[in-house]
Amino acid sequence: MTVWPDTRRCGSQPYQRRCSALRTREVIWTGRRFQDIRHNRARTPPDRRRGVYQRWQRVVVEAGLVLPGEDPGLVVSGDDFLLERHPVNVDALPVVVSVPHYGIGSPRKFAVEEFATRLGHHLAYGYADDYAAELYGHLHDIGATVIATQLSRLFVDVNRPRDDFSVEDGVVYSKTGAVRTHSRRDTPIFAEPPDHAEAEFRLRQFYDPYYSALNRCLQARADTFGHVVLLDAHTANARRMGNHQVILGTSRGRTASPELVDVIGATFIQHGFDVQLNVPGYGGANIVRSFGAHQRDRTEAVQIEINAGLLQTLDHDAFIKTQIDGIRPAPDMATLTRLRACMEELVVACDGYARSIANRSG
Fold first, then answer.
1. Dist. CA 253–CA 249, nearest whole Å
2. 8 A C-beta contact, residue 300 and residue 350
3. Residue partners of 35: CB distance under 8 A and separation at least 6
4. Is the CB of residue 155 less than 8 Å from the CB of residue 225?
5. Do residues 225 and 354 make contact, with C-beta atoms less than 8 angstroms apart?
6. d(CA 105, CA 102)
7. I want to staple 342 with a disulfide (CB 3.0 to 4.6 A). Which of 61, 178, 233, 271 is the partner?
8. pLDDT in tens, 69-109
9. Which CATH architecture group holds 14-361?
10. Measuring CA to CA, which residue among 4, 227, 209 is closest to residue 94?
11. Would you kindly state where each structural domain of the chain is located, as residue ranges?
């Protein structure tokens, strides 16, 4: 049984952890050490950062990863927004990975004046999960099925309830819903927000197909193996996540069993990452609740949030400024490599778990 740390304590004190899967006890420091690492990274000279960025681009290309377009003006349609990657040269496993905040695309070309601020056309970057493509986009090579969207959640957030916005006088209003019109601080995003007809058009084009693809893949894997694990994969804003490194969300136990949570938590701990469960604000959103809460006999779902600060080589302000300047900052390659290896092992561990549950049920 994994002993999770007290999520109310996020200072510089060590947490002792025990995990039956590892049969070890270890002390993992959080808080100040994590802050110090980020602080030191921020001191990297600009010329070295550019060199790292160029090496990262080369590594990404050689690895065959398909990244979101560098141009925030990338336009995707209902025909090409969905990325659905199935295992090709390896056996398929009963694991599906959803990456709902993968892309930076828009449903059409937006002129600068259509946004409420002159930098509005760069907002698609800020609404994507940083480095999600590099971190999760290759897991079909391990045997998982990967479902992702190239559309920025600035325009449609598929990890919210479909009707999660209000309509007043035919105009949509939402700060964190399925169709955004305002920032969390209630600042307008668009010069003229979309009307209800436009919101419904976007939902039919981009929201409904995402859920249909997930449902189809989960049903197929459950029919084949008897049980399937859905991993809803994210990276989260470093400032909002604070000292948390990895947060697992199960809607307070409604979408996955404690046994599966232990399997996933143990894998991250083994790779040296700090793990918490169901932290407020990261307890599991619409995707895990839709597919895990009501189908526990065949499908279990866990939301994974990894602190993007672990991957950033710049402090928050410099990171945002670099993106506004049109440069996609390079990740910390050592940490990216660790996390990719961790996710690969996690897929294999979830495969073993799903098969064991199916055998017990059979």
1. 8
2. no
3. 243
4. no
5. yes
6. 10
7. 271
8. 444 457 888 778 999 999 999 999 999 999 999 988 889 88
9. 3-Layer(aba) Sandwich (3.40)
10. 227
11. 14-361
